[in-house]
Design a protein that fits this description.
The chain is built from two helices and five strands, in the order E-H-E-E-E-E-H. It has a five-stranded antiparallel beta sheet, covered by helices on one side. The longest helix is centred in the first third of the chain and has 18 residues. 26% of the residues are buried.
Length: 145
């Protein structure tokens, strides 16, 4: 199988720091792969909160994660603080990708990178629906000159 490769956008829209707790570490002594997804999910929740939203109510819609991919760059360990930088991109009618980069805050060592595909849904019917224009205006950079 070919390895996943992610090119990250240069413009970071949001960054947050999250400490690695003992519950995030596996028997091998480093950040567990399932816990990496938990940390990315926490960063995503904080991203939406920074825009004034909850994932369950974004301009009357909710979101669901359609897919996620991660590429590991190094181990991370208990007690380290990770900086998760997020950049929305790859916009389409129904959602977008939220690119992430995870670095150990003090050393700058890259731990992981990847992206999460987010899709908007109608809260009542749970069916996919177009991204709310007011949300898109907040997160999509204006077209260049």
């Amino acid at each position: 199988m070919a390895r996943l490769q992610f090119e990250l956008p240069t413009d970071v829209a949001f960054a947050t720091d999250i400490q690695i707790y003992i519950s995030h570490v596996n028997p091998g002594g480093h950040l567990d792969n399932a816990q990496l997804l938990t940390l990315v999910s926490e960063a995503r929740v904080r991203f939406f909160k920074s825009l004034g939203y909850r994932e369950s109510d974004i301009e009357g819609c909710a979101i669901v994660v359609a897919d996620i991919g991660a590429q590991y760059k190094s181990e991370a360990f208990h007690g380290e603080t990770l900086r998760l930088s997020l950049a929305p991109g790859d916009f389409n009618r129904y959602g977008f990708d939220l690119h992430f980069r995870m670095d150990e805050r003090d050393s700058g060592r890259e731990v992981a990178r990847g992206k999460t595909g987010v899709v908007f849904i109608d809260k009542r019917t749970r069916k996919v629906q177009p991204m709310p224009p007011a949300f898109l205006a907040k997160v999509r950079p204006p077209p260049g000159p």
